[in-house]
Design a protein that fits this description.
By secondary structure, the protein is of the alpha+beta class. The chain has 13 helices and 13 strands. A hairpin with a 2-residue loop joins strand 3 and strand 4.
């Protein structure tokens, strides 16, 4: 339920309760006033009748008393008038059909004996009758008494009529007050609140141009509406400022990326020019010798041609590596036993490791199967292992570790291959660029700088990633993460676990 609706109901109920209570108290006072007026009216009739009877008895005009009593019969509000003598006998009776309680009231003896006026209420035939019994004195003697009575029901009819009028009046007042409260609350409370809610919803949806209608006057809602519009103005200004700053940052980032692309293209062009320039110079020199010395011995010409072919193969290899960077790989995934693939790759670098004085250590204490293309994955391992050997020109130790479920992403587990060397490590300024094309720290003629770039592309095509970091004690570690197969194929499940081995 809305706050405005609750307030309307609360105010309506409270005002209605106050009106009802006030009207009820007024009604009770009205009822008491009618009852008092009825009694005072009957007492006035009784006093008038007493004076008239005493004068009539004093002058001996009893017939005048009879006529006075008969005249009272014409008053419809007077129920009955009874005249008694000294012996409590009925002398005059206005209505012979009146009840016995009125003809012979029990209070009559007390009035005749004491000479005091007595008032009483009798319940006659389902009606309440109020009666006044007064003595009649002539001189110092008591000549009798009379009783005049009136039905209380006439007053009750007036009271019932007053109650009906009270209920109708109260209901009309409540309806009017409720209508006034509803109109005032809707115009003064509900509409401003709805307007502010609409403005808040618009701002929440990003419409900072929305402005609420400011109510007339200088009340709290008009002040709140003005503050709301002022806040919207500030937010709009801040958003424009933020948009300008974002555009500036975006432009700066575009410029930076453009500069980085130009730098990368420059490095790529420089690398291609350098890597192809050397073999092209060799080819040009050897071809010049063949042209300048056509009479050279056959052995010399064959040696020059062999060198030319070797340099052409070198250029072809560089071009092939560049093409590998641009094209997508057609992977033929299959279950690959990772420790076995690493062992086979180590056999290819065994001679180079021995020549460089590098001790190779393989640690794989469990069987790990990954989904991969064995040829491409073998190329990745070969590039990383060769890079590790080249990082230790004075010899050292190359450590290869396998770990199952080393990482988890998107509810999928990844196996890891860590290749650590004890070389000089990677300088911080080179660490962020070692996977860039043609980026190498080796001497000229000792590598193109494409090996790690190709390795990262192949690993990413497999759905994994490769990381590089320096070791605390010296050297660097390359970690390759590959999607791990959850269930082992039957042909691989029967193979024994790999044991720790050391290769020289």
């Amino acid at each position: 339920m809305r706050t405005s609706t609750r307030l309307i109901l609360l105010l309506t109920v409270m005002v209605s309760a106050v009106v009802a209570v006030t009207s009820f108290v007024s009604l009770r006072q009205r009822e008491a006033a009618l009852d008092t007026a009825m009694r005072n009216e009957l007492r006035a009739h009784a006093l008038t009748l007493q004076i008239a009877l005493e004068e009539s008895y004093g002058d001996g005009r009893i017939t005048d008393a009879q006529r006075l009593i008969d005249r009272l019969r014409e008053n419809t509000r007077v129920y009955a008038v009874v005249l008694f003598d000294q012996q409590a006998r009925v002398v005059v009776l206005t209505n012979p059909l009146i009840a016995e309680e009125v003809r012979n009231p029990p209070e009559l003896d007390r009035v005749l004996s004491t000479g005091q006026t007595v008032e009483s209420v009798h319940h006659v035939s389902g009606h309440d009758v109020f009666s006044v019994i007064m003595p009649i004195r002539v001189g110092t003697g008591l000549r009798g008494a009379f009783e005049i009575s009136q039905q209380v029901s006439s007053v009750k009819n007036d009271i019932a009529r007053a109650r009906r009028n009270w209920m109708v009046t109260t209901l009309i007042i409540i309806l009017i007050i409720s209508g006034v409260v509803i109109v005032v609350m809707r115009r003064g409370l509900s509409h401003p609140i709805q307007e502010l809610l609409g403005g808040a919803a618009a701002l929440g949806q990003g419409d900072l141009d929305y402005r609420v209608i400011v109510p007339k006057g200088r009340n709290e809602f008009s002040q709140l509406a003005r503050e709301f519009n002022r806040m919207a103005d500030h937010l709009a200004a801040q958003r424009r400022a933020a948009a300008r700053k974002a555009e500036e940052r975006l432009a700066l980032e575009r410029d930076l990326r453009h500069s980085e692309r130009l730098a990368m293209v420059g490095r790529l062009a420089a690398g291609v020019a350098h890597e192809m320039g050397v073999p092209l110079n060799v080819i040009d020199a050897r071809a010049g010798q063949l042209l300048e010395r056509p009479e050279a011995p056959l052995e010399t010409r064959q040696r020059n041609l062999t060198i030319i072919r070797a340099q052409v193969e070198r250029i072809t290899r560089i071009v092939r590596q560049l093409l590998n960077l641009a094209r997508s790989y057609n992977l033929r995934r299959q279950p690959v036993d990772l420790p076995s693939l690493i062992s086979n790759t180590l056999e290819q670098i065994d001679a180079a490791a021995t020549r460089e004085g590098v001790e190779v250590e393989l640690i794989c204490s469990e069987q790990i199967v990954v989904d991969a293309d064995p040829d491409f994955l073998g190329q990745v391992l070969l590039n990383v292992l060769v890079n590790g050997i080249h990082a230790m020109p004075s010899g050292g130790r190359l450590r290869i570790e396998c770990a199952a479920a080393a990482a988890e992403q998107d509810a999928r587990r990844f196996a890891a291959v860590r290749v650590s060397d004890t070389g000089v490590g990677i300088t911080p300024e080179h660490l962020d660029h070692i996977f860039d094309p043609f980026y190498t720290t080796r001497e000229v003629g000792h590598g193109t700088g494409l090996g790690l770039t190709v390795a990262r592309r192949i690993v990413e095509e497999h759905g994994g990633w490769i990381e590089a970091a320096n070791n605390a004690g010296g050297g660097a570690t390359f970690t390759i993460y590959l999607p791990q197969r959850e269930e082992l194929p039957g042909s691989l499940a029967a193979q024994p676990d790999q044991e720790k081995c050391v290769a020289q």
